[in-house]
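Input sequence (427 aa), recorded before submission:
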Amino acid sequence: MISKNALLSAAGLALAVTSSAAPTAPAPTAPSWPEFRGAAAQGHSDAKNLPLTWSPTSHIAWKTPVAGIGWSSPVVAGTRIFLTSAVSLSGKEEATADRSLRVISLDASNGKPVWDVELFQAKSPRAHRKNSHASPTPIFEDGKLYIHFGHLGTACLDALTGKTLWSTQEFAYSPVHGNGSSPVLFEDILIFNADAETEPKVIALDKATGKARWTFARQSEAKKKFSFCTPLIIDVAGQKQLITPGSGVVNALNPKDGTEIWHFNYDQGYSVVPRPIYAHGMIYLSSGYDKPVLYAIKVDASSKGDVTATHLGWTIDKAAPHNPSMAVIGDELYFVADNGILTCADAKTGAIHYSERCTGPISASLLAADGKLYLQDEKGLGIVVKPGKTFSILATNDLGERSLASYAVIGSDLLIRTEGNLYRIKK
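Predicted structure, token format:
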């Protein structure tokens, strides 16, 4: 076994300290970007004066090397930034290298590591070339950090020290292409999708202990059962609903006990990735591979049981995303296909205002903030678009590094994760 210090040194993290050392940054406080896609979980930020332009040599507050491979997004709480990574135990980056699955805390002021903790090890794990073994984004809440590596394990840490409060690998399943779905929190429960090769399900754990609270067995006619979608909790007429898309179906569950409220079928769609969004009384989601269809599904107090025939608002079957999550700004819905075609549609009717080439191949989700729409493509090209019914690019910013992770916001700055680094971009 390679020692932890040797592993960190070999990985280029010689500045990192172990979790037993005294913290070198103030304790985390109120989260500004606590989970995948931000505080409201739909890719919006209230931040002002965000940067419009940047490059590898300009508008960089700091740049920190991050060892290993991971496409989880950063999360932010006060003066701390947290992210996960899967570091090769051999120092070689071949696809099936044994991995140390780690979570890292950084000082937000300078990007220096505060602690770096190994949670699990994975023996010869496999993942799709556009996936990683650390793709799910953590969640911060009340001084605790909830970490999920999909089928490889789940844990809760003290966010200040990195001390493990509980960890479990009890809920393993047989994945296809690795892990991907980020978890969500509801009251005293941690919930995640486990859409495996067979017997797809949704799993809820007691967030204080990691013990099982409930499991929902997903029923679908889709031949391929695997998906990677992150659920979304919404409020419908005072009722909380867990919106959880999987292959061939989206289910709305009572997050307290996992009982189904309603479901909507979309045939053979599989490998569903984009997180759904909710606006104008409708859920917007993409049906996944092989040909994605964008569905707008009406949600109201009458949504009970199978609503496939009764609650469809509209669909769009051109340039729908396989991977990037969408955003609604006002009455406009924005979505980008994986080939870089950005579409703006009327969120209420589905009428298309424009559909234009915007980026290269893209997997990261959209960010709506400061009166702008931000996109980040797989080659590290950041495009800033002016919201509205007419296509207008405000800026083009090239970091020149591979990037599949979605943006995070800290103060008036952006956090951008690339294949080898984490950037804090300032105005």
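Checked by second reader. Helices lie at 4-10.
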